[in-house]
Amino acid sequence: MRAQIEIGRQAGGQTVPVDVEELLATRLLVQGNSGSGKSHLLRRLLEQSAGLVQQVVIDPEGDFTSLADEFGHIVIDGGAHTSREIETLAARIRQHRASVVLALDELEVEQQIRCAALFLTALFDAPREHWYPALVVVDEAQMFAPAAAGEMAEDTRRMTLSAMTNLMCRGRKRGLAGIVATQRLAKLAKNVAAEASNFLMGRTFLDIDMQRAADLLGMDRRQAERIRDLQRGHFLGLGPAISRSPVAVEIGSVRTGGKNASEGLMPLPDASGGELEALLHTDLAQAAAEPAPPPRPAPAPRPSAEIEQAIAASAAVERPAPGDDETPDAASAAPAPSREDAEEGLERIVRELAMEDGATFQSQTSLFRNFAVRCRQAGVPSAHVDMMQFRRLFAYASSGLDRLEPGKRETIEELAQAVPEDVLAPYLTLAVNAALGRTAPDEDELARAYGSSSPSRIRRLLDHLERQGLIVVREDFGGERTVTVAGLETV
């Protein structure tokens, strides 16, 4: 299979293609100073090849999470998992050929480096039967393959250098094609940069970086001055997957966007110096005397069963700007609902969401985003509800737990406290049916609760719940299955 994508155009309008199959075999190095358009280039490359090959993105700034909305990438929140879970997820990503974005923006720099190193090593160590072709994009690669130790611990540096070297030097035979982007070639370990055969060089100003870029492109010192004069979004490309001779390319448009702040000018506040001084100094001593807010606790690790449900989705929902008929003053003047009204509003919104056709087959990211938007529209506070709490509320609503008498409902809720979120909805469905006297579960109802149309997954689900001691499954000679939920009386 040969598949070419268009990365951009030359000055004369000719398209500049990239051969994805050749790229898988020869790897790519991207260089450019901050603001030169590296992230835009990587986004264009990922969008154009999304339907052709599996993609794995190491994203230290969280810029590529928007790929999930448009192209179905799964976002892994690196800060929401233990080391062992990160390694397990990486193995499942190779097994199931899932395109993912490993978002590391919630971690400190050294934690980002260790998390990425564990993740890349697990991708590399996947069993041979899972060596499917995949593009592995590493943004800000100088962090993960530094030329010098810097301030990071020596064991961390050895770990990450080993992972990046394996990706670029030995990854090809395992189907892994490294695409590394860096602000400065001088900061990137030479044994990592040297393994790339394709290059896209953007604007850079330091002589040492210009000379190294010119050497890689086969340009002399006089021609290297072109690199300093490149405009934003313009790159010089060379390599078997791009062109046999250096070619200037303007990167094409993209469909998704990052979360970077706008770089354009904005009007300054329309206030006098005295008003601004008053804003800065009002109650300053009182505010400074208040204790500092406690550090944000690390998110609790979450158990996982299947890759689609094990991957943590941290969807940050942007608060919409006031519309033409809503001013900030009017919005802030609206009375806050009481706690009881707020809880009732949350339950109503979750229940309405759970009762929609096909809701359980949607991703948790989409459901959580839809939930937050509906709460905003209804004026119901939802900032205190995180993804884990939402998953439990959604499972309660979709299982029909509210149909039971208060006593039985409270018993099931108490039993469900120890049940992982990824299997909570089908467990509650079984418990509700058992409480209603239906000991032979309807597989279609279980499939709807689990968000799957595969009978084999339902059988594996029942086996998993039984191994966990949550249910007891008995099957007679006629094939009739009876399920008893541990802790509930058999009706």
UniProtKB/TrEMBL annotation:
Signal peptide: none annotated. SUPFAM superfamilies: P-loop containing nucleoside triphosphate hydrolases (SSF52540). This is DUF87 domain-containing protein. The lineage of its organism: Bacteria, Pseudomonadati, Pseudomonadota, Alphaproteobacteria, Sphingomonadales. Pfam families: DUF87. Gene3D superfamilies: P-loop containing nucleotide triphosphate hydrolases. It comes from Qipengyuania pelagi. Residues 24-350 form the AAA+ ATPase domain. InterPro entries: AAA+_ATPase, ATPase_Atu1862_pred, HerA-like, HerA_central, P-loop_NTPase. Residues 316-344 are annotated as: Disordered.
